[in-house]
Amino acid sequence: MNKLIDFVITSIKVSLTGSRKYYAWLASLLIMVLFGAYSYYYQLKYGLIITDIRDQVSWGSYIANFTFLVGVAAAAVMIVLPAYLYNYKEFKHITIFGELMAVGALTMCLSFVLVDLGRIDRMFHLLPFVGTPNWPQSMLTWDVIVLNGYLFLNLLIPGYLLYKAYVREKPRKWIYIFILISIPWAVSIHTVTAFLYGGLAARPFWNTAIMAPRFLASAFTAGPALMIIILQIVRRYTCIGQPGCKLVVTDRALFTLAHIALISMLVNLFFLGSEIYTVAYAATSHLAPLKYLFFGLEHNGVHYAKLQPYMWAAITMEIIAALLLLFPRTRKNFTTLNIACIFAFLGIWTEKGMGLIIPGFIPTPIGEIWEYYPTLMEIMITLAVWALGFLVYTLLLKVAIAIEAEEVVHPSAKDKEMPEAH
Amino acid sequence: MVDESRRDFLKKAAAGATAAVIPFANVRIPVIDVTLEEFLQKHYKEMSEEEKQRVIERLKKEYREKYGIDATIKTTPPKEGVVWGYALNIQKCIGCRRCVYACVRENNQSRANPKEPWRGEIQWIRVLEFEKFEIHPGEKGKDFRTKFGEVLAGINLEESEHYYHPEKVPEKDKFYMPIQCQQCERPPCVKVCPTKATWKEPDGIIVVDYNWCIGCRFCIAACPYWARRFNWSDPYIPREEINPKMHYLGNRIRMRGVVEKCTFCIQRTREGRYPACVEACPVGARKFGNLLDPESDVRKVLEKKRVFRLKEELGTQPKFFYFMD
Predict the structure, then answer these.
(1) Is the CB of residue A201 less than 8 Å from the CB of residue B188?
(2) For B162-205, what is each residue's pLDDT tens digit?
(3) Which residue, B108, B77, B151, B87, is CA-closest to B238?
(4) How far apart are CA A147 and CA A120, in angstroms?
(5) For residue B34, which residues of chain A lie inside 8 Å, CB to CB?
(6) Chain A: residue nearest B195 by CA?
(7) Phi and psi at residue B29, in whole multiples of 5°?
(8) What CA–CA distance (Å, rounded) separates A328 from A259?
(9) Do residues B223 and B207 lie in contact, with contact meaning Cβ atoms separated by under 8 Å?
(10) What is the ipTM of this complex?
């Protein structure tokens, strides 16, 4: 128990000490969080009126970002699965970065849901015993369960493994059971999130069986793309490359991630194409949201097309990313690889964030066209949640890197070798 | 079994906790501005009669202090053997929107605040305007429309106009279709609610416990009839416009951050009166009654007129019927 307390204290110390650049990074994130907190104070005080969400478009930036980030969280499985099921060595060294990314993403997901609530003071109505959760009927109760369960798994697994590394002990077998559970659990979080929308017959744009598969495909593109960028940053700002450094992030690991992103992107584009074909060829009244998304809608001589430029930009970025990832020469060149990753990430963020949530509401089920565009305060809250997620991720990464690089060790284990499993 | 007793125990513990905090019941939590008592209030269906009365007394006091009105807030339960149904004559409707405004006055919806122009009035009824089309068979290059002549053969909601403002209604080549909560027998909004804050009453009315709703707005997304509204800010109602005859599940004044909707004027219909929209209609296009009573207005419409329901293919089974003579 004492060792555990030492672990926690050391972790806090390590996460709060660093170079000047590190402090600057933390400070800038913190400032963004504070700006958002200031806006959120107004939202609490005056209600969601400070956003541009209204009865016509009743979810906006918050839920759009939530949806996208559930995918990023789920994508950790793309590292865990090859590492543990196929014993892929290159990924063993980086699983922890993936799992902690899931924690950062989940922090954002849960925060986005919370800031979207009209009555956060009544949040506990969702909980068993003190509240009345509508389980199993409501998909949102399922989402609460799977998201919190996934957060628990991704805190437990890296937490336990880091602790064991800190005290130089071999991890016990039972942790592998949790690692195995975390694999289907990752799939479940994004499936349930897709079912939130897919189950609504009132919204033809969402009411399609391709929703969950498409969500997973796009998640397994955006997640690895972000991972590739982050791992390069880790390589740059840690001891990697210096003699005696115990951290390992190989080029091969990055290229395998790029391969995963490529295949997922192609599958994602295929799913998107299937969806567009089915809706467009049948050309029922269900076509309107899709038309709005790509070309805008006409009503009384007014052209409504606020999302149109973003959507074309997204599709263009996705196709460029797919092409850059497709050819080995551009995939294995870090400049083009990074462009591909950034494009893939931004493209999917647009396509399955705002590009998926907003047109679901346009036109309304009774035919009104009403456009949504986030307000400044809403954008500030959105950015703050992103900053909060990155803040959490940064602090966790800092600890993980220090322990994995064997820079910190429990005093009692100083002379011990790092056990094999690490 | 174990689960039940545990639940029971926790409930009692929670009730005990409520009793224990009574000395601090009026302490206000800052920013979100709710009292501790309100914060710890139970789900409507889980409250005893005593607890309901306590809550009602609190609400009355609140309205007295805030608006200077003496309200009555009833909890009249549904009558046995009653399932409410509604029928609207789409051929008669002249699009005057008197039902819309009567509904707002009756049900204490938030009004447009002249000082805050970005805040509009909440309306539960939306009247859609459609163009009539003549049949022009054989005319080259023209799409054959789904609605033509005096006969309405179909409705494409996406071709509707929501914000029509002519000098006089009805306009010659237009017809009108009011849409409000269809009180579905299989309501998707109830299914998706994560906290059971909205449910179908035994008389078929979908109600909301405004003190239990967490404001996630999943029900708004799930409703195929766009019948639910959200309180984006604190409601604004001038004192003299408040209707003091209230029902707990109906027209009592709401708070910011919760969803509301048409209840067929539960505060009226459960006392044997017609909904406000039925009374306000100048052409008698609106019929209301007990679906289980063969002699009711609605049943007669169902038997004698040509009837359709909106979006029947979705399987929501509305108890709101549109008809033609």
Answers:
(1) yes
(2) 999 999 999 988 999 999 999 999 999 999 999 999 999 999 99
(3) B108
(4) 18
(5) 121
(6) A133
(7) -80, 125
(8) 10
(9) no
(10) 0.95
Cβ contact, residue pair B195, A285, below 8 Å: no
Q: Residues 91-130, chain A: which have Cβ within 8 Å of B?
A: 113, 116-123, 125-126, 129-130
Q: How far apart are CA A349 and CA A69, in angstroms?
A: 9
| Chain B: closest CA distance from residue A363 (Å) | 7
And the tokens for B162?
A: 């929501």
Q: Are B256 and A118 in contact (CB under 8 A)?
A: yes
The full set of domain ranges for chain A reads 2-413
Sequence letter at residue B167? E
**Would you mind telling me the total number of residues written for chain B in this entry?**
325
Q: What is the pLDDT of residues B114-144, one digit of tens each?
A: 888 888 999 999 999 998 765 555 555 555 5
Return d(Cα A213, Cα A210) in angstroms, integer: 5
Assigned CATH topology for domain A2-413: Formate dehydrogenase/DMSO reductase fold (1.20.1630)
CB contact set of B115 (below 8 Å; sequence gap of 6+): none
B14/A120 Cβ within 8 A: no
Torsion of CA B228, B318, B107, B112, to 10 degrees: 40
Q: Does residue B215 sit at the A interface (CB-CB below 8 Å)?
A: yes
Residue of chain B whose Cα is closest to the Cα of A205 = B221
Confidence of residue B259 (pLDDT cuts 50, 70, 90): very high
Both structure tokens of B194:
């994560």
Strands B84-89 and B320-324 come out as: parallel
**Closest-CA distance of chain A to residue B256, Å:** 6
Terminal Cα-to-Cα distance of chain B (whole angstroms): 56
Contact A207, A58 (CB under 8 A): no
Cβ count within 10 A of residue B146: 12
The whole model's pTM is what? 0.94
